[in-house]
Design a protein that fits this description.
Elements lengths: L1 E6 L4 E9 L6 E10 L6 H19 L3 E5 L8 H21 L3 E4 L1 H9 L6 H11 L5 E7 L2 E7 L1 H6 L3 H19 L10
Parallel strand pairs: 1-4, 4-5
Antiparallel strand pairs: 1-2, 2-3, 6-7
Length: 192
């Protein structure tokens, strides 16, 4: 099974893909990264880029299921939450067009599965998923001075550099895989 986890945001969307063996007992590989979207783009262009990139990832990695983190509701940042919901909508339409099932998990559920507490901090989640997936350093390819360069970040550095969308996306994928494992491969909840 191949599970694509997405941590949605308007300017930087994290993705984490887990590949499990035929019985979904073991993780055999993972891919991860972020797709950055220019802050100068219009909201519509940003949504379209999220839509297209999601479809590209599904096709490139032959994804079986897609899992999206639900938008966190913060009354003091209501506008930001509305925009993230628009991104989620664009991603859902992209997934729907490919015929893959979509699942949603709350940030608290993901934190509890990966870090042991629904109140875990970003560093705890990054360390938790790095430990689960045996990733001592996250390898990130980014454009630097016009060239694609490889950077290696510890879980702490990943969060400190604002790349925690990656650890969050991998955690979302892992959360779904754990649910599949608990239910012996059967779909455990309704697709959204």
């Amino acid at each position: 099974m191949v599970i694509l986890g997405i941590d949605p945001a308007l300017n930087r969307v994290g993705y984490g893909i887990l590949f499990s063996d035929s019985k979904n007992e073991n993780i055999v590989d993972c891919k991860y990264g972020v797709y950055d979207i220019s802050p100068k783009d219009s909201t519509e262009d940003k949504l379209y880029k999220s839509f297209k990139t999601t479809q590209y990832l599904i096709q490139k990695y032959n994804v079986d299921e897609v899992v999206i983190e639900e938008a966190f509701h913060n009354p003091r940042r209501a506008r930001g939450g509305m925009v993230v919901r628009e991104v989620i909508g664009a991603i859902k339409v992209a997934v729907k067009q490919t015929g893959r099932p979509i699942y949603m998990y709350s940030p608290q559920t993901v934190k509890k599965v990966v870090a042991g507490s629904g109140l875990a901090k970003k560093h705890d989640v990054a360390y938790g998923i790095a430990n689960i997936l045996n990733i001592p350093k996250f390898k990130i390819e980014m454009k630097y001075r016009g060239e694609i360069k490889k950077f290696f970040y510890s879980p702490e550095e990943l969060v400190d550099r604002g790349l925690d969308h990656i650890s969050d996306a991998l955690s979302i994928s892992y959360c779904r895989l754990r649910e599949v494992q608990k239910n012996n491969g059967r779909v455990a909840r309704d697709a959204v």
